[in-house]
Amino acid sequence: MTKPRQYKFKATIYKNGINFCVDVPAAITSAFTAVKGYIRIKGTINGFPFTKFLVPVKGGPYRLFVNMGTLKGAKTTTGETAEFVIEQDEEVLEKDFPMPEQLAMLLKEKKLTEAFNALTYHQRKDVLRYLNNIKTTETLEKNIQKVIAQLENKPVDGPVPISIKL
């Protein structure tokens, strides 16, 4: 799988009720995929690692809530500006939509694993979600063959197709 893109930004930590948080720039969150409104991310605050969710705010930017343990680890507090590095946590993709065994075997056999991994996060997620929701073995096999066929028809030096159509 390709490494997800990391985004860096600085933000001032503020208190919202009893919670500490920062607003994440829309230019960053627009590059992520929300699941039921939330965006699972991982990253660092002042070099201190964390895994959290970005929470949607009606009429505003996504918000990142920061607990006291993370603030202490990052050596920062409310009112201070901290440096954030975040990326979409793609492990959710693997947990929610595992790769069917037949697809993994065919990708390896036909030397297309790299081509599949070169698809964007969203493309891989869409393909795996679709394949995981198929009920019959016959339909699954037919659609796996479609994925393989589309990956095989990719131009040698050209980009991967923008979308896999099943």
Q: Summed up, what is this model?
A:
This protein has 166 residues and is an alpha+beta fold.
What summary fits the major beta sheet? 7 strands, antiparallel
Within CATH, the superfamily of the largest domain carries the name AF2212/PG0164-like
Structural class assignment: alpha+beta
Looking at the structure, the CATH topology of the largest domain is: Elongation Factor Tu (Ef-tu), domain 3
Overall residue-averaged pLDDT value:
85
The total number of structural domains is 2
The strand line-up of the biggest sheet is 1-7-4-5-6-3-2
Uncertain runs are 155-162
SSE succession: EEEHEEEHEHHHHH
Cα distance, first to last residue? 21 Å
The CATH architecture of the largest domain can be given as: Beta Barrel
Categorize the overall geometry: elongated
At the first level of CATH, what is the class of the largest domain?
A: Mainly Beta
Kindly estimate the percentage of residues that lie in beta strands according to DSSP.
15-25%
User: Portion of residues in helices?
Assistant: 25-40%
Note the total helix count.
7
Q: Determine Rg (CA atoms, Å).
A: 19 Å
Number of strands: 7
